[in-house]
Each structure stands twice: as structure tokens, then as C-alpha cells.
Design a protein that fits this description.
mainly alpha, 434 Repressor (Amino-terminal Domain), 2 domains, two-stranded antiparallel ribbon, 11 helices, 4 strands, about 5% strand, elongated
Length: about 220
């Protein structure tokens, strides 16, 4: 239902244009990458042509659009969604959640978390709340908690990350890469305004998103 509502709110051309801009590609770039003529891509974005399902899948794969967002593109074009979406609690997800819980437990005594695309914490092992609770008051934060907000909030982990200025940029820049144009308010605003909450107003995060691999150094006050 949520996916169908989003498809109604955003026509196909706007969605394709959004993801193309997110990946830093022009129509010519996308044409060269997919083998689809730039003229036809322009017609699709302007609403003058309706693409086939196969063409949408090629473009989605080239732009590395998340599976959930590919379903939005298909619905916006009048096609049935290919990828289904289930809540964590449904019986169909039992095997998946069991496997994830096993992986989380194997990370003990180190903290491990499962996040959704909004950086909202879905599941953790027992070490995670102990670790983050030693730096911030988790009881003061209502569930579901947002990890990005916890890391960037001056009342959260931010005072313990050093050096802050050189570390906060890559994390905040990564957040928008896999989020669609309708992120809403589920992220608590942390994804929408990483520059402001990180104390680096006026800086534009890289639209390509930073790759994972950097580390954060935490300090404990004695």
C-alpha cells in the first residue's frame, strides 16, 4: 500500500530524473551506459513515451536503484511490482529474522545492529545497547531509534567522536544514496539535513555517497 501511494504521488519521469541526478549522470551518460538512445530517454522523462518493463529494469540496474524503488518505477508505469515487501513480524520472514539474529549473536561481545534505509535500528545484539548506552542516555530516546541521529546529535555520540569535523562528513554524505524521493519523516530529519546536524552548514554532501570503510574513534571522558 505504501509503495502504491508513492507511485501515485511521483510520475515516472520525475522518478527517473531523480535517480539519474542522484547518481550524477546526464541523459547522455545514461544512454551510453544502457545502449538506449538519449532521445528516447528524454521522451520517457518528459512523459511523451511509455517505456517497456525490460527497459525500466535495464535503467534501474544501471542506476543501481534499490529494489523497493524499482517497484515504484514499475507501478508508476502501469506495471505490476516485481519485488514484494513484508513486515518483519509476518511468518514468511521467520527464517530470515532467525538467520539475522544468529549473525548478530555471533558478533558478541562486539555491538552489531540491523538498520533500515532510514538508519532506523531494527534489531541489535545484546552488546549494542550496552555499548551505546555507555556514551548516551538511550532511555531518553524513544523507539525506534535512529543511528544517524544518535551519532550526529550533540546530546548523543557526537561529543565522543574525534576528530569530529574530519569524521562526520563521510557518514552524513552516505545517507541519501539509497533513499527515494519520498523519505518522509521516518528518519527524524537526520537524513534530510546531514550538513546542519553535523555542524557543517553550507557544505553539500557528495551525491554519489561516500563508500564504507572509514572508521570512527571514540573517546571516553574520565
Amino acid at each position: 500500500m505504501q509503495t502504491q501511494e508513492r507511485a501515485k504521488e511521483h510520475e515516472l519521469g520525475n522518478l527517473l530524473r531523480y535517480w539519474r541526478h542522484q547518481r550524477g549522470k546526464s541523459q547522455l551518460d545514461l544512454s551510453l551506459d544502457t545502449g538506449i538512445s538519449q532521445r528516447y530517454l528524454s521522451f520517457v522523462e518528459s512523459g511523451r513515451s511509455v517505456p517497456s518493463r525490460d527497459l525500466l529494469m535495464i535503467v534501474s540496474e544501471t542506476l543501481e536503484i534499490p529494489l523497493r524503488e524499482r517497484s515504484v518505477l514499475l507501478l508508476a508505469s502501469g506495471y505490476a511490482a516485481v519485488y514484494t515487501e513484508h513486515a518483519w513480524e509476518v511468518p514468511e520472514m521467520a527464517a530470515v529474522t532467525k538467520a539475522i539474529d544468529r549473525v548478530l549473536k555471533q558478533q558478541e561481545p562486539h555491538p552489531a545492529l540491523v538498520l533500515d534505509r532510514y538508519w532506523i535500528v531494527i534489531r541489535t545484539n545484546e552488546a549494542a545497547p550496552r555499548f551505546f548506552g555507555s556514551f548516551a542516555d538511550l532511555d531518553a530516546r524513544k523507539k525506534p531509534r535512529n543511528l544517524l541521529d544518535l551519532m550526529l546529535d550533540p546530546a548523543g555520540m557526537r561529543p565522543f567522536v574525534e576528530p569530529w569535523v574530519s569524521r562526520c562528513g563521510p557518514s552524513s554524505a552516505r545517507s541519501p544514496r539509497n533513499s527515494g524521493p519520498c523519505r518522509g519523516s521516518k528518519d527524524g530529519g537526520a537524513v534530510e539535513k546531514p550538513g546542519k546536524i553535523s555542524g557543517r552548514e553550507g557544505t553539500e554532501p557528495n551525491s554519489q555517497g561516500a563508500r564504507p570503510g572509514h572508521s570512527h574513534h571514540l573517546r571516553r571522558e574520565r
